[in-house]
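Minutes, structural biology subgroup

Action item carried over from last meeting: produce the structure token record for PDZ domain-containing protein (Symbiobacterium thermophilum). EB confirmed the sequence was re-checked against the source entry. Recorded below for completeness.
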Amino acid sequence: MFQMVGEREPFARVASQVGPGVVQVRAGRSQGSGVLLDPHSVITNAHVVGDSPSPAITFADGVTRPGRVVAADRLYDLALVETVSPVNARIEPAPEESVVPGRQVVAIGNPFGFGWTVTTGVVSAVDRIVGGLDGLIQTDAAINPGNSGGALVDLDGRLVGIPTLVLAPGQNIGFAIPAWQVLHVVEQFRRTGRAEHPYVGLAGATEVIDPVVARALDLPGRGVLVAGVEPGGPAHLAGLGEWDMVIAVDGAPTPSVQALRRQIRRTPVGATVPFTVLRGGRLLQVPVRVGELPAAARR
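Output recorded by EB:
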């Protein structure tokens, strides 16, 4: 199916390199794609496997074998499936810092059941929020139903993300779950059989820091202005409130709401981390104990 090609054809080379690591996933009437993490593990979207405990996995050589859903999480839209691959292939992740707007990417999947289809494009934007999913990579590489769970890779054949949805009214506006988040959730699936949902109960907006204050305190130009905290939530219990400006979490800058959400998501539930907060012209270190998103909000 995939032939070796020369360096002058980078997209064909990537398709040949990565294609064997992409699979078809069928669960009842649902069908999509998946990516081999190793000879015994496939990662796909939770909406692809649905409630099926044993989806069928078809490999690049045409062999179909049963799979077993190890864990799935609707909020992250990820599912880990155990199987036995006859294909010796796996896809390595791309460094998070390499995924920037303008980076050329290749999407490989099974749109509408057409097996191992290759489309190309660029990273259009990062850190998008669509519905309940955040931190998404936006791409103009054509993504259609059936691409879900497949591979979005760079020209080195490294996994950039897992395509998960497309904006139906638009043209070539697709979204993928970033590889770092996929691997973070997979590690939790393997360790505990479920994914954590870190939560602090804080609502905010990206705002420009007063230039005079920023210069005086050697601060970045932006932070997250707290618009409200949930009563009894971790942020409230830590003493955060409206008009606080969150500059960093555990030393990592938070110049946007997306950056703040990303840092919280990386923090283990139960860990206490310092929030660097600008309040009334003074910098404070506020320890916040990260909680678990309430069960009612995970439904």
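Discussion: The longest strand covers residues 117-130.
Next step: EB to file the record with the rest of the batch.
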